[in-house]
Amino acid sequence: MSETVQTKAVEVEEPGEATRDRDLEQLLVNEGDVAGDYLERLLDLLDYDGDIDLDVDAGRAIVSVDGGDDLEKLVGPRGQVLEALQELTRLAVQQSTGTRSRLMLDVAGWRAARRAELSEIGTNAAEKVLSAGSSVRLQPMTPFERKVVHDAVAKVTGVQSESEGEEPNRRVVVFKAS
Amino acid sequence: MSVLADSLEHLVRGIVEHPDEVRVHLITTRRGRTLEVHVHPDDLGKVIGRSGRTATALRTVMAGIGGRGLRVDVVDTDR
């Protein structure tokens, strides 16, 4: 899978821009609603405690599920169950709205916690490359994890990063900028 | 119906064109537990996904919920 690079809101200099923004906002709110229903029903069936919070940020719907210990099962090792559940939730949204969804799902604050940790891994790798000169290959990561690492590396001058290998063994390589 | 079958049925219903035709059965044999998924023939592609991606996601989620060794089979009926 290719990295999903955060696309900045495209500036369109045409009349009706405000209408389109409202339409996009409405679409994203709608995405959140569909996703919320899909996940809420799953939690009900499983009898897991969980509250679902919906938000829209940076042009995508954000769905967060927080609650009891059972939710760990929906995160799984290295967040693999969470990634799979996000994939299914996106498909459910697409089935309902007819539009591809980029919604982000978080469960039990896993992404939020992992993000801080991964940023540090990225920054450390970048500093190691700068001081040692040789490149650093990190552990295999999910697309979400690699994105966070790439973002952290990009903040350090003089280094670059790329992903290499095939899923699920795709990993980030950090090297000196040419 | 088991919680596992109900949950998988719900997950599949959300992503297909013909939700009313989704059926999931839990089959237990000496070799383990298998969830058999039946969908409308036109929905097979949706449930399997490109390079089996969607079926893999369904398996991963069900393994998270039901534990390792829980199999998910998408059954290709008629035709």
Characterization of this structure:
- The complex is a heterodimer of chains A (178) and B (79).
- Chain A is an alpha+beta fold and 178 residues long.
- Helix content of chain A is 47%, strand content 21%.
- In chain A, strand 5 and strand 6 form a beta hairpin.
- The longest helix of chain A has 30 residues.
- The model of chain B has no long low-confidence stretch (mean pLDDT 93).
- By secondary structure, chain B is an alpha+beta fold.
- Chains A and B meet through helix 1 and helix 2 of A and helix 1 and helix 3 of B.
Q: Can you summarize this structure?
A:
Chain A contains four helices and six strands, in the order αββαβαβαββ.
Number of helices of chain B: 3
Taking all Cα atoms into account, the compactness measure Rg of chain A is: 18 Å
Major beta sheet, strand line-up of chain B: 1-2-3
Oligomeric assembly: heterodimer
Q: What's the total number of strands of chain B?
A: 3
Straight-line distance between termini of chain A: 26 Å
Extended strand count of chain A: 6
Round the mean pLDDT of chain A to the nearest integer and report it: 90
Biggest beta sheet summary of chain A: 3 strands, mixed
What's the CATH H-level superfamily name of the largest domain in chain A? K homology (KH) domain
Strand numbers in spatial order across the main sheet of chain A: 1-2-3
Largest interface: A-B, 21 and 20 residues
First-last Cα distance of chain B: 28 Å
* Coarse structural class of chain B: alpha+beta
Q: Averaged pLDDT of chain B, please? A: 93
Question: What labels would you give this structure?
Answer:
heterodimer, A: 178 residues, alpha+beta, GMP Synthetase, Chain A, domain 3, 4 helices, 6 strands, 21% strand, B: 79 residues, three-stranded mixed β-sheet, 3 helices, 25% strand
List the helices and strands and how they pair.
The complex is a heterodimer of chains A (178) and B (79).
Chain A: H1 17-46, E1 50-57, E2 60-67, H2 80-97, E3 104-107, H3 110-132, E4 136-140, H4 143-154, E5 159-164, E6 171-176
Helix pairs in contact in A: 1-2, 3-4
Chain B: H1 3-13, E1 23-29, E2 32-38, H2 44-48, H3 53-66, E3 70-75
Parallel strand pairs in B: 2-3
Antiparallel strand pairs in B: 1-2
Helix pairs in contact in B: 1-3
